[in-house]
Each structure stands twice: as C-alpha cells, then as structure tokens.
Amino acid sequence: MKTFKGIAACSMASVILLFAGCERTDIHKIEPIYKEAYQRVIPESVTVQRGDMEPVIRFKLTQNSLKYNTYSVEMDNLEFSELKVANGDYVKAGQVLVVFKSEKLQKEYKEKNEILEKDKLLLEHTKRQKEINYDPTKPDDEANKRIAEMYDQTIAKLEDDIKLKQIEVAEIQRDMDKCVIKAKEDGAVTYISDAIKNGIVVLHSDILIVASGDVGFYVETREDYDFQIGAVYQAVAPTIQFDVEIYRIDENESGSRTLFFKPVSDDVVYVSNERFEIEIPREKLTDVVYVSAEYVYVTEDDRSYVYLLTEDGYRNPAYVEVDNIVEGQAIIKSGLVGGEEVTGK
Length: 345
Prior knowledge:
Blueprint lengths: L1 H27 L16 E3 L1 E5 L2 E8 L2 E7 L6 E5 L6 E2 L4 E6 L1 H31 L8 H36 L2 E3 L4 E6 L1 H4 L8 E8 L3 E5 L10 E5 L4 E11 L5 E7 L12 E6 L3 E8 L4 E2 L5 E6 L5 E12 L2 E6 L6 E3 L2
Antiparallel strand pairs: 1-21, 2-16, 3-11, 3-15, 4-10, 5-7, 6-9, 7-8, 9-10, 11-14, 12-13, 13-14, 16-20, 17-18, 18-19, 18-21, 19-20
C-alpha cells in the first residue's frame, strides 16, 4: 500500500508539473529559448519607459518642380562691365543681370552705323536732286529720260547698300545684345560664380543660375490626423526656415493623403535644394508605458510580445497589448508597467 501511495504521489506530481508547463507552452512556441545560448553573453537591452509623451508628426517635404535657367558667356573678346544682381535677389523676366562690353563690337557698330547714316542722307539727297532735275511733264523727252534713269540707278544702288548695311548693323547689334544678359523668366538668383564676382570672364562657363517656378512643397501620408487647410507650420532646413501653410489636401485612391504647402510670406520666392522638414504636434499622452517598437514582435495569430531580460541574462517572452505606435515608440496598454529590461531576438 505504501508503494501504491508513492506511485500515486508521483503521478499527481507529474500531472501538476504537466499543467504548470502548459501555462507557458503557447508563448514558448513563439521561438524556442535555450538558456545555454545566453549564459555567457548578456544581450543588449532597453528599459521600458513610463511617463508623459509629447509626440509630433515629422514630415520630410518634397519641393515642387523648379526650373533652373543657366547663363554663361558664349562670345570671345568680352570684358566685364557690371554685375546688376546679388545671390538671392528676385528678378523679373527681361531684367538685366550682368553687363559685358566689347571694344571691337562697339567700334564696328559705330563705323557701320556712320556709313549707314551717310548712305541714308545721300539717298535722300539723290531723291531731291531727281525731283529738281527731272521733269515729270516731259516723259517722252530723251534727255529728261536719261536724267531719270541716272537718278533711278543711283537710288537703287543706294537702297541696296542701305539694306546690306542695315543687315550688318543688325548682326552687330545682336552680338552687342549678348553682352547684356537678361533674365528669361521671373525667378530668384541662386548662383553667381566667383569669377564673375571678381570681374573675370570665363568663356563657356556658368556665371549665373536663376530658379523659376512654383515655390512650394508636398508630402504623402497615411497619418491618422485631422489635417486642416490653412494650418501653419515651420519648414526647417539646415540654413533656412520659414512658415508654410497647408493650402490643399488630396485624397488618394490608395487611402493615403497628399498635403500641399506654400510659404506664408510673399517674400519667400525661392528655397534652396536643402531638405526641409516640419513638425506637427500631437495631443500630449499622460502616464503611458512605452518602448521602442523594434523590440515588439507579433505572432502568426497577431498577438504582440516582447522578450524580457532577466538579471542572469536569460530572455523570457511575454505577451503585451499595444495601444498605438507613436514616433517609433510602442504605447503599451498592458503587459508591462515600466522599468523592465527588454531585448531583441
């Protein structure tokens, strides 16, 4: 009988152990944990936090398309005369940016123009001489005819010469116009070469860049937030910052939304190629438990869990209930209280 009692006691102990083991069987199926693998090396861990959070939404903005007009010197023998703009200036189409000069072109223009003006004067003089010496009432008079023919030939030659000179002067004028560089479109000066700042002319080298187009930004988001048209935020880059406002919100078929921003001030006519970011404050969270979301895992049946790190370096999986993910932090609704050490897989 004693032997039977001993067997019964052992059986009951086995049953108790079996049920005790069943309590942890499910979570241990997440990933087998072998203590031997962690006896020598203590894995890196983070501390579960508890307290208030003031979360924000951070957006990296994409700039609207801007057109960049580049200006360079494409003619030989030009000398620097005057730089009319500074970096960052807003310019209107047709506004003079920089002026060059060419003594050769100026000399040719002056000479050709003087000859042209003399030919014009000679043409007018010849026409008046014809009016004086030719009698239109005697069209059949031979001498009168020869006078008309002489003047007509001279007038025709002068007119041909004048047309040729006008073409030559126009060509020189076109070249001289190239000495004055004007803005092709409204925009902002974004680059001025050091050479041109110092009055040095470098052939076929960029001397100015003017950015034209729509100054604004956009971003696509799936954030669950009540974005409002007219809401103002600060766009920040490493070297510049200014206020922007939402002026349009597009609902996309994919379920995301595209937010469009524009500068609040009309003085902002151009923004640099730097990356701009904005921060939108969310509602303050009070007395919450949170941990980096990278330490929270999900089972095949969509249950969240973490690995708790024991004092002797072992990992123990524990189920948690995640309320939300905010700025990469998992807000824990239950399963952790704060102060625990959790580690990765």
